[in-house]
Write a structure and sequence with these properties.
It contains 7 helices and 20 strands. The chain is an alpha/beta fold. α1 packs parallel to α7.
C-alpha cells in the first residue's frame, strides 16, 4: 500500500468508485449544487476522462471523435479530483475506506459506487475470440481489427454480430460503415425484442435489410469457429449451418459490476462485505429509494444498482439516481421513482 490519501481539513470526503456517465453526472450534480465543505474524488479504472457511452458508435467509425462528457473545467475545481487508472478492488466499511488495484487507499465519509456493468461474454466454445462493444477501447479495437483484416485478407471483411438489440445493431452498422459485410444473429424472432413488439421488430428488420445488413432471427449460435492460428472463420449455428465470419462481435447483454459487494473478507469479529449488502437475484446491489445501500454512507447508482429487482443499462435512470444522491447529501428529500424503460 502507498498509504492513505488526504484531503483538506474540515471537508467531508466523497469517494466515487467508477468513472462512467453516472459518476460524471453525480460529480456534475455536486458541482452545480455547490462544493463548499465537500471534497469529491472520482476513481476510474479507464485511462480516459468520463465519456458518453451512448454515442460509442461515432468513435467506432471515427477514432478521433471526442466523446468527453461535459466541460473539462469541472475537473480543475479544487474540491474535485479525478484519478484515472484507479480501479477500486475493495471496500472496507468499518474503516470507511476503499483500496485500488494500484495499491492506494482512499478514506471517505460517503461512498458512491458507480461501477456500471460489463458486456456479457458468449457462453459457448470460441466465445473468447469475440470482440465486445462496451467501452472506448472496445470500439477502437474493432476499428483497428477491421483495418488490419482488410489488408491481410485482401477482400471485404465479414463480421457477425451476435445479439440484435440496440447496441448490436449499432455495432453491425458501424462495421458496415467501415467497409465490412455485416450479419446480425438474434435468438428472438425479431430485432430489438426488449423494446419492440413483433410487428415493429419485423418492420425494423426489413428496413435494415434494405440497407444491406443481413439479419438472422429465431436462431442461435453454438460455437465460434477458428483456424489453427486463432483467426475466426465462422459461426456454427445450432441447426448445423455455418455463417462465414472473419470477426465476431458479442452484444448479448450486460452484467452488473457488483464484485465490490461480493467480498469475503471482514473484520476478525465482524461480518463479511457480502453479509453487509443485499444482492439482487440477477446481480447488482440492492438500494432503497434514496439510492442508499444497507450500509450507512454507501450509495449505489447506475447499472450496478438494483432497484425493485432490476438493474437497467439506461442512462436516464442512472442520471436520476446521481441527482438524487447529490440532493440527499445537500439535505434534500428526493426519492427514486423507479425505472422509466423508454428508449430512443
Amino acid at each position: 500500500m502507498t498509504g492513505h490519501t488526504s484531503t483538506p481539513e474540515n471537508q467531508r470526503r466523497i469517494v466515487v468508485a467508477g468513472g462512467g456517465p453516472a459518476a460524471h453526472r453525480f460529480a456534475d450534480a455536486m458541482h452545480t449544487r455547490g462544493l463548499e465543505g465537500w471534497h469529491v474524488t472520482v476513481l476510474t479504472e479507464e485511462a480516459h476522462v468520463p465519456y458518453d457511452r451512448v454515442t460509442l458508435s461515432k468513435a467506432l467509425t471515427d477514432v478521433d471523435y471526442d466523446l468527453t462528457l461535459g466541460d473539462m473545467s469541472m475537473w480543475e475545481h479544487e474540491s474535485i479530483s479525478l484519478r484515472t487508472g484507479e480501479r477500486v478492488v475493495k471496500i472496507n466499511p468499518e474503516a470507511k475506506s476503499v483500496e485500488t488495484a494500484a495499491g492506494n487507499t482512499y478514506d471517505y465519509d460517503h461512498l458512491v459506487v458507480a461501477t456500471g456493468s460489463d458486456a456479457a461474454q458468449l457462453p459457448f466454445p470460441g466465445g473468447e475470440l469475440a470482440h465486445v462493444y462496451r467501452t472506448l477501447d472496445d470500439v477502437w479495437a474493432i476499428n483497428k481489427a477491421i483495418a488490419e483484416l482488410t489488408e491481410k485478407l485482401g477482400r471485404t471483411v465479414r463480421t457477425v454480430t451476435i445479439g440484435g438489440g440496440l447496441l448490436g445493431l449499432e455495432a453491425a452498422a458501424g462495421t458496415m460503415e467501415l467497409g465490412a459485410q455485416a450479419t446480425v444473429i438474434n435468438g428472438s424472432r425479431w430485432l430489438m425484442n426488449a423494446q419492440l413488439d413483433e410487428g415493429a421488430g419485423q418492420a425494423l428488420g426489413r428496413l435494415v435489410t434494405a440497407k444491406g445488413l443481413e439479419v438472422l432471427t429465431g436462431t442461435y449460435p453454438a460455437e465460434v469457429l477458428s483456424d489453427d492460428d486463432g483467426q475466426v472463420t465462422g459461426v456454427l449455428m445450432k441447426d448445423g449451418r455455418v455463417i462465414p465470419a472473419d470477426m465476431v462481435i458479442a452484444s448479448i447483454g450486460i452484467r452488473p459490476r457488483d464484485e465490490l459487494f461480493r467480498g469475503t473478507e471482514g473484520a476478525a469479529d465482524g461480518p463479511t462485505v457480502e453479509q453487509l449488502f443485499e444482492l439482487g437475484k440477477k446481480g447488482g446491489v440492492v438500494i432503497n429509494d434514496h439510492c442508499a445501500t444497507p450500509v450507512p454512507g454507501i450509495f449505489a447508482i447506475g447499472e450496478v444498482a438494483n432497484f425493485d429487482g432490476m438493474c437497467l443499462g439506461l442512462v436516464a435512470p442512472a442520471n436520476t439516481m446521481a441527482e438524487i444522491v447529490a440532493d440527499r447529501l445537500h439535505g434534500g428529500q428526493a426519492t427514486f421513482p423507479g425505472f422509466d424503460t423508454a428508449t430512443k
